[in-house]
């Protein structure tokens, strides 16, 4: 059985991008990894999300925004997801 989820109203379902734990073969200390902002990819959008947002966009938001969730199919391979209000997005991110 496949679960279908749809964010309500102006909310976004975002998969949080994991931060690197090493750079150039050098392990980063825990304090260097923790930051107050996060990057995520938009997976689904509510019906009233502004038209500037699109599925697949990468966005920056603060660590404390939204609701942290873990989807049932990811309990054994943890991936962090967040449900955010559209106005919690600080900016778009492009590499």
Radius of gyration: 14 Å
CATH class of the domain at 11-17 and 35-92: Mainly Beta
Number of helices: 1
Percentage of residues in strands:
35-45%
The SS-based structural class is mainly beta
Stated plainly, the CATH topology of the domain at 11-17 and 35-92 is called: 10 Kd Chaperonin, Protein Cpn10, Chain O
Order of helices and strands: EEEHEEEEE
Please tally the β strands and state the result: 8
**Secondary structure: helix percent:** under 10%
Largest sheet: 6 strands, antiparallel
CATH architect. name of the domain at 11-17 and 35-92: Roll
List segments where confidence is low: pLDDT < 50 over at least 5 consecutive residues.
none
Describe this structure in a few short sentences.
It is built from one helix and eight strands. With 95 residues, it is mainly β. The protein has a domain at 11-17 and 35-92: Roll (10 Kd Chaperonin, Protein Cpn10, Chain O).
Can you describe this structure?
- The chain has one helix at residues 30-33; strands spanning 11-16, 22-23, 26-27, 37-45, 58-62, 67-69, 81-85, 89-92.
- The protein is mostly beta strands.
- The protein has a domain at 11-17 and 35-92: Roll (10 Kd Chaperonin, Protein Cpn10, Chain O), CATH 2.30.33.
- Strands 6-7-1-4-5-8 form a 6-stranded antiparallel sheet, with no helix packed on it.
- It is globular, with a radius of gyration of 14 Å.
- The termini are far apart.
């Amino acid at each position: 059985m496949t679960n279908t989820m749809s964010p309500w109203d102006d909310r976004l379902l975002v998969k949080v991008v994991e931060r690197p734990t090493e750079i150039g073969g050098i392990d980063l200390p825990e304090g260097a990894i923790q930051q107050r902002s996060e990057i995520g990819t938009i997976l689904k959008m509510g019906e009233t999300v502004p038209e500037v947002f699109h599925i697949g966009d990468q966005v920056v938001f603060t660590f404390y925004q939204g609701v942290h969730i873990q989807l049932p199919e990811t309990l054994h391979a943890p991936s962090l997801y967040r449900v955010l209000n559209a106005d919690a997005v600080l900016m778009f991110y492009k590499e």
